[in-house]
Amino acid sequence: MHVVIMGCGRVGSMLARGLEKRGHTVAIIDQSADAFRRLSPSYTGRTILGMGFDREVLIEAGIEDAEAFAAVSNGDNSNILAARVARETFGISNVVARIYDPGRAEVYQRLGIPTVGTVRWTVDQMMRRLLPEGSEPEWRDPSGTVRLAEVHVHADWIGRLAFDIEKATGARVAFLTRLGEGMLPKADTVIQEGDLVHVVMLEQDAPTIESQLGTKPEEA
């Protein structure tokens, strides 16, 4: 998949490196040409000089072919504006913004835009939200047999019961994060747009389950 990143600071450069290591293509935007010096010598993606919320700059970065967008500059206003442009103008569903102000972060979470903060934790959380497979475990039992992970689900799962995920995969939906708040699914809980789905599954079954949830559900 192609990912566009706004901001080539510590987080942006680390995120670019991590995504390329996983085989994804990256374009990174920054206002300062000097910022690109933070990129690894092995970086093969595009570097674009400009504002990450400028439509023409985003198009140059390949936003029209992107599947994810990360706004990690050092300005809250710029990050949230860029995230909204990526989502509302270009229809990117996997959008994450770094917000320094906790109060603002809570507001934007409730608007359906995932927000994260601090450098290493930011990179880990963004990996979970940006990648359609290979979820990063949030917890493992001491034996390494069972994992809890936030799993990306295909858009066609939206409108389905959370219980349908359990019937299709054999995993358990531990909880959902909806508008920034955790909730335990009930028998009639329906997956909504923007929900983050946290699943408990056997470690050995994780690749199969992630693949199932990353594709359209089979019709009964």
UniProtKB/TrEMBL annotation:
Coiled coil: none annotated. GO terms for cellular component: plasma membrane. Residues 136-215 form the RCK C-terminal domain. Residues 1-118 form the RCK N-terminal domain. The keyword Ion transport applies. Signal peptide: none annotated. One of its GO terms (molecular function) is potassium ion transmembrane transporter activity. InterPro entries: K_uptake_TrkA, NAD(P)-bd_dom_sf, RCK_C, RCK_C_sf, RCK_N, Trk_Ktr_HKT_K-transport. Keywords: Ion transport, NAD, Potassium, Potassium transport, Transport. It comes from the Bacteria. The keyword Secreted does not apply. This is Trk system potassium uptake protein TrkA. The lineage of its organism: Bacteria, Bacillati, Actinomycetota, Actinomycetes, Propionibacteriales.
